[in-house]
Design brief:
By secondary structure, the chain is mainly alpha-helical. It is built from 4 helices and no strands.
Length: 120
């Protein structure tokens, strides 16, 4: 029982121990201009990466919306058949059927899109 209590206390201490980063004010004053210059030089690359990632996120959202076309197509084929919706329904069924596979591909490419590798 003592061993279990010791292990639990050790795990609790390791997981929830918050260490504070202490830096001297002189160090912060010396390094602040260097950090600002590094941020200025990196900002075009960060903006480009965020734009590429945003475009890929829009592709993921489009694929999620296309998944909803499968039940819409089934309704169009069954209930809309007398009204001439067979062609649109079949198109929606095919698009909705392949949408989850496109979603998987776009989600897998999403982390790489921040580095300029894109699928869309």
């Amino acid at each position: 029982m003592k061993r279990l209590l010791f292990i639990l206390l050790t795990v609790f201490f390791c997981l929830f121990h918050v260490s504070k980063a202490c830096a001297e004010p002189v160090t912060m004053v010396v390094l602040a201009p260097l950090a600002l210059e590094a941020a200025k030089q990196a900002s075009p690359y960060v903006i480009t990466a965020l734009q590429n990632g945003g475009q890929q996120l829009l592709e993921v959202g489009r694929d999620v919306g296309n998944i909803l076309r499968l039940p819409l197509g089934v309704i169009q084929v069954t209930l809309g058949l007398p009204f001439g919706m067979l062609g649109d329904g079949l198109d929606n069924i095919v698009t909705g059927f392949f949408a989850p596979f496109q979603l998987i591909g776009d989600v897998l490419i999403l982390p790489l899109s921040f580095f300029g590798v894109g699928g869309g």
